[in-house]
């Protein structure tokens, strides 16, 4: 076998090291490189150590096995003897299904390793990028190019992340509308735990991360590794153990049959697979939050407290009522008013109008200007709801351009919420959406778009007859970027029936996510904790709804509702115009507490206590310099003991003393003591919460 033209220099083992993370890669060839190590930063290694690592990890020949044992390379394939999930699946009209890549070069620039490989016989070349980022994330992406003379169909192109042998428990999240991000755990056994989205969006059941760690790993302890696909279309994540002992995480874009047919000389780039690790989930999440916060585009202005009209008025758009809600909002300290669904042509309910992005003059005879002027006159920003990718058959757009609607052959896919999906990859359709939305943004002083996406895609076939989720996802990103470029300062929220489109891909183009349509604070506890593994609080919409939850009918006190939303991008989704002065004053107090502390909430480190009593919950945010923290202690249900357990306050500087305030009680205790022994919890009724503050004393 010829592999004489490998260009990589004498260096064959590479150490990517940054942000507390080391990744060590053996690229000695001739096969694809192997990630020997991914985890805590290893210091003081020299070239001899790296070579020894490469030698010490070679698997032995085993009885009944292959003469040359397979390695878990960055693209493990059957041609190398790999028999678990392969790195690439594809073919050229049924042929060329088993490529054998030869390493051409491995070049390290800073903390990025670029690996070029080629299979001349099959007519494929591959660029694999491995990078350790500033915050210590490990990210990978492949670009596959068809160098052959006929089309090559890619079925799957996967990124692999090796796990330490200590990983033996898998955690991911699932859910549904009104209950996104519910955790589930299982042992990591031989075989794979696979989570796939074929929904054309990550989905309400999306896990965000596939995680694996030591038995019983929690927020504060246990070595855990996790990976995410930074893309808003279809994805697949798996935690797998091969019968040859390797444990690993796998990430990919899920591709539909025929979706990626590479013509000669064309390429497919996978999304970035972004991975983090930590001693406990809080540390794993902190790396992701730190990375996001370092982006030049990360929102740095105080996140405006928002009043969203949806649960306040739904489709009942009445100028006077909305003005009085805006008045009440301004009076309690709200800074942004968002007019939700219902303002555009024919949109009197959710059966019609999507696609016709012109103000409906039957409801808004003078346009939106009277409301916007009123809102702006109160000193608030104004936001407006759109659902650009969607269309109702009962709309002028669908009547005029049925060819822009995704559908197979001569039938429509099954509807959801009476709507279908537009083909944004069609330039005519994209141009229409840009010009219609741009016109609304030009005619009206709009600071913010709530960008919704309220259905899973089914049979997403474009006019070419092939599935187009990959292309439409990229076209959506382009539309967001073009609107932002045309309207500098415009912010966008990613909403999809709540948390159906939460991913690091969309967060490159948007400024916040809507976490769930369920605003019941009890349900929000898990939802926000597990969304928070990926998304820092400043990007996570969290609202105070009315006393009785519209999705669960549970009734909760204002204190519980306001405290549970406290750390997020705060808001109110409730008709507060009907409150009396005393009730408004209480809402204003919570808004004021949020504003005083939001710099801490939106720049600090998010922490969660691991508590033996499932009835209790403690979470908080600790300032980066450790001088202040705010916690919320929640009594989810009744504890089986009275009093309930003492609760630790994690994340403070162990050697510092803190003045801790919980209600009227005040103590001065060390960070170490608070993180271990903690505080005796007061007697709380189920479904109530108290705020605890900790300030370092000099
Ligand atoms: C679903 C969103 O999640 C809600 O907040 C609201 O905007 C509705 N769509 C409007 O149709």
Key structural traits:
alpha+beta; disordered N terminus; binds (2R,3S,4R,5S)-2-(hydroxymethyl)piperidine-3,4,5-triol
In this entry the ligands are: (2R,3S,4R,5S)-2-(hydroxymethyl)piperidine-3,4,5-triol
Radius of gyration: 27 Å
Protein structure class:
alpha+beta
Helix share bin: 10-25%
Task: Provide the residue-averaged pLDDT.
Answer: 97
Largest sheet: number of strands, sense, barrel closure:
10 strands, antiparallel
Q: What percentage of amino acids are in beta strands?
A: 25-35%
- Global geometry: globular
End-to-end Cα distance: 70 Å
Number of helices: 12
Count of individual beta strands: 37
Q: Which stretches of 5+ consecutive residues score pLDDT under 50?
A: 1-9
């Amino acid at each position: 076998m010829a592999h004489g033209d490998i260009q990589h220099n004498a260096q064959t083992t590479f150490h990517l090291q940054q942000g507390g993370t080391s990744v060590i890669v053996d690229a000695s060839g001739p096969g694809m490189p192997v990630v020997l190590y991914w985890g805590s930063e290893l210091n003081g290694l020299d070239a001899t150590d790296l070579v020894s690592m490469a030698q010490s990890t070679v698997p032995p020949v085993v009885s009944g096995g292959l003469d040359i044992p397979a390695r878990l390379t960055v693209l493990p394939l059957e041609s190398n003897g790999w028999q678990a999930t392969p790195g690439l699946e594809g073919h050229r009209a049924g042929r060329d299904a088993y490529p054998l890549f030869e390493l051409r070069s491995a070049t390290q620039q800073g903390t990025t390793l670029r690996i070029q490989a080629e299979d001349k016989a099959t007519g494929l070349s591959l660029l694999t990028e491995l990078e350790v980022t500033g915050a210590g994330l490990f990210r990978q992406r492949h670009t596959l190019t068809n160098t052959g003379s006929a089309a090559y169909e890619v079925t799957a192109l996967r990124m692999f992340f090796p796990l330490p042998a200590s990983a033996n428990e898998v955690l991911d999240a699932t859910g549904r509308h009104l209950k996104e991000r519910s955790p589930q755990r299982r042992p990591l056994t031989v075989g794979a735990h696979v989570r796939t989205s074929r929904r054309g969006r990550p989905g309400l059941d999306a896990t965000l991360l596939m995680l694996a760690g030591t038995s019983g790993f929690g927020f504060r302890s246990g070595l855990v590794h996790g990976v995410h696909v930074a893309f808003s279309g279809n994805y697949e994540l798996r935690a797998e153990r091969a019968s040859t002992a390797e444990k690993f995480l796998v990430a990919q874009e899920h591709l539909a049959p025929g979706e990626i047919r590479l013509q000669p000389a064309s390429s497919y780039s996978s999304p970035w697979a972004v991975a983090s690790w930590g001693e406990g989930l809080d540390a794993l999440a902190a790396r992701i939050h730190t990375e996001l916060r370092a982006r030049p585009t990360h929102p740095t202005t105080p996140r405006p407290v928002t009043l969203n009209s949806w649960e306040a008025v739904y489709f009942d758009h009445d100028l006077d009522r909305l003005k009085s809600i805006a008045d009440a909002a301004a009076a309690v300290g709200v800074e942004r008013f968002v007019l939700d669904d219902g303002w555009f042509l024919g949109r009197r309910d959710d059966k019609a109008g999507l696609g016709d992005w012109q103000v409906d003059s039957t409801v808004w005879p003078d346009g939106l200007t009277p409301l916007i002027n009123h809102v702006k006159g109160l000193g608030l920003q104004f936001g407006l709801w759109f659902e650009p990718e969607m269309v109702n058959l009962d709309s002028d757009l669908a009547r005029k351009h049925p060819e822009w609607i995704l559908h197979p052959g001569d039938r429509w896919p099954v509807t959801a919420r009476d709507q279908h999906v537009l083909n944004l990859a069609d330039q005519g359709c994209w141009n229409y959406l840009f010009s219609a939305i741009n016109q609304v943004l030009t005619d009206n002083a709009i600071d913010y778009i709530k960008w919704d996406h309220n259905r899973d895609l089914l049979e997403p076939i474009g006019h070419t007859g092939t599935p187009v989720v990959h292309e439409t996802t990229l076209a959506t990103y382009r539309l967001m970027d073009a609107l932002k470029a045309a309207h500098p300062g415009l912010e966008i929220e990613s909403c999809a029936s709540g948390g159906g489109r939460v991913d690091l891909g969309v967060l490159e183009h948007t400024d916040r996510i809507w976490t769930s349509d369920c605003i019941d604070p009890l349900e929000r506890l898990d939802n926000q904790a597990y969304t928070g593994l990926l998304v820092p609080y400043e990007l996570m919409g969290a609202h105070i709804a009315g006393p009785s939850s519209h999705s669960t009918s549970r009734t909760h006190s204002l204190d519980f509702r306001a405290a549970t939303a406290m750390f997020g991008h705060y808001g109110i989704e409730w008709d507060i115009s009907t409150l009396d002065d005393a009730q408004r004053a209480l809402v204003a107090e919570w808004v004021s507490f949020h504003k005083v502390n939001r710099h801490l909430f939106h720049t600090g480190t998010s922490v969660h206590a691991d508590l033996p009593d499932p009835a209790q919950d403690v979470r908080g945010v600790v300032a980066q310099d450790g001088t202040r923290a705010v916690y919320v202690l929640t009594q989810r249900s009744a504890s089986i003991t009275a009093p309930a357990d003492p609760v630790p306050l994690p994340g403070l500087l162990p050697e510092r003393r803190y003045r801790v305030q919980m209600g009227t009680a005040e103590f001065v205790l060390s960070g170490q003591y608070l993180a271990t022994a903690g505080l005796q919890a007061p007697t709380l009724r189920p479904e109530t919460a108290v705020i605890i503050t900790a300030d370092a004393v000099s």
